[in-house]
């Protein structure tokens, strides 16, 4: 008992710090979502119950569309980041000449701010002055400029493409680190048994690095869902809301409407979705463990 | 050693006693840009030279997030003494009750009678109180590129909306990446669509752009259907598809590169165009008249205000007064591009009566055809409207929403706000 108390007191400063920097803003944000705190209403702030949520769910004709966009954004972004990051990590695992320089080049998108990337890509993909269009025309792939960000059917594809480009390095770094911990003896034994490349990949590599994969996918899903930077820099959610995800909607609510409570309500919706997702994901993935 | 210590103490006390106290004023600007901020810094330097002991600390947030930063700083009473306020943000800021009523200061300011007529009244939109002193006026005009127009055998700028469409269509050759009109699709496109829309009316309320003189919401009038259809045609037939995603940057870039030689913009665009184009390569003209024979521009303004909690209000006013003086206002407007707020500036500096200002001069001289009106900026749904109008307008342009349905939604929006 004494030992438990001792550990508790050792952890207390950290617990207090975490409570202050995480718990307090979260609680404060949730409380805000039940008030009428907006720029026009600083004099008469009061509790208004679920009014903000009612407005969000029932008065916004674009809300269902935003939910679908968010789903599309998270699903495709994480899926392709994972697959391409995995392939990249496998390629980077084997030593080759100039690997350090190559790794630096591959990982550099991760070092730039998401908003800056959004702005840069919005110009690269610009339908009139964009370099991408110019290159595609010069090499004869297209005859007329493509409106990457103005055509609703292409806009979502374009922002996801950039997000995939941005997110591959994170998966690659995490998976590469995990790959380097797989003992060579396992591969040697498998080779003696006559296992091919894919047998080794699916029976040794993936099961061995599964905990890393699970945690990385979980983390990235949360981050991607809360990552409006690229979309904001590229399209601000347009045209006609076709690239608007929940996180962008939250910013737009603050930016255009200056309604902080309504924006907080959007935040609560995002947190709730992620909370449900995390519990379900961890339950599903914790059933099967890797065993040798 | 003792002597040295005594000497040092005397020196320290002397420095403390005789050194002049430096007062620092914190100023936040809303429209920072590489073309404007250096001018502001020059003016500040002049002020500091004339007022020893005063230092002005400039905060320049990025333009896109400036309003939010200002609103948050003022609402949380961050140390600020001078705040730049734009017309679209004035009501939101004033509603907080944290802006100083400038009436006593303005009343005792001799140059107030020299102000351009109507500006101070326009700046008093919130409860009739002047919470800011404007330092620049914005009125949209038609910018055009005579060199590009001449290449297509067009000798004059469009004088009416139908002419704007015809000329723009003539210029449009999508294969050559040549178009007519620099369309605005995002980032407050309200001001552009409304100029076109209201030009189909001849009875717009001078106090509220969205109402007719008889009090009807303009969007439920059949003329709005015709107007919005015209607007859709203007986009589809004369503007790049991509322009549905264009804000100020893209519009001006496209104008400079000649892709779209016709542009509606504010006078502050001249600051950038003067740097990027040769003299005579661009000109300004009045906004094209609508089918009604009229067009309804708005009087935009930007100015300086003082937070109620500032500890140096009188000194802040001294700076605001300095910026608004004829000499500085002339320098400021010439360098940055906004129209001066003092009448005398227009007469003493020939720059403001040059060809470059033909568009505005003609509009100001013809109140019959160019009738100034106002946005319902004091309505608390104004910010929400901008986003809603942008999205629904884009849906119409993309063919996802019918013109009639869109206008019904706009009518319902304003009815719900109880617009009067």
Write out key terms for the chains shown.
heterodimer, A: 292 residues, mainly alpha, MetI-like fold, flat, B: 420 residues, alpha+beta, D-Maltodextrin-Binding Protein, domain 2, 2 domains, 5-stranded mixed beta sheet, 18 helices, 45% helix, Bact_solute-bd_prot1 (chain B), SBP (chain B), Carbohydrate ABC transporter substrate-binding protein (CUT1 family) (chain B)
Summarize the structure.
The complex is a heterodimer of chains A (292) and B (420). With 292 residues, chain A is mostly helical.
Describe this structure in words.
The complex is a heterodimer of chains A (292) and B (420). Chain A contains twelve helices and no strands. Chain A is mainly alpha-helical and 292 residues long. The mean pLDDT of chain B is 90. In chain B, helix 17 runs antiparallel to helix 18. With 420 residues, chain B is α+β, with helices and mostly antiparallel strands. Chains A and B meet through helix 11 of A and helix 3, helix 4, helix 11 and helix 17 of B.
SSE layout and pairing:
The complex is a heterodimer of chains A (292) and B (420).
Chain A: H1 2-32, H2 51-59, H3 63-93, H4 99-107, H5 114-124, H6 131-138, H7 152-179, H8 184-192, H9 197-225, H10 229-234, H11 246-257, H12 260-285
Chain B: H1 2-18, E1 23-28, H2 37-50, E2 54-59, H3 63-75, E3 82-86, H4 87-95, H5 103-107, H6 119-122, E4 133-138, E5 141-144, H7 146-151, H8 161-171, H9 190-198, E6 204-205, E7 208-212, H10 222-238, H11 248-257, E8 262-265, H12 269-276, E9 283-285, E10 300-305, H13 313-324, H14 326-336, H15 343-348, H16 358-364, H17 382-397, H18 403-416
Parallel strand pairs in B: 1-2, 1-3
Antiparallel strand pairs in B: 3-10, 4-10, 5-8, 5-9, 6-7
Helix pairs in contact in B: 8-10, 9-10, 17-18
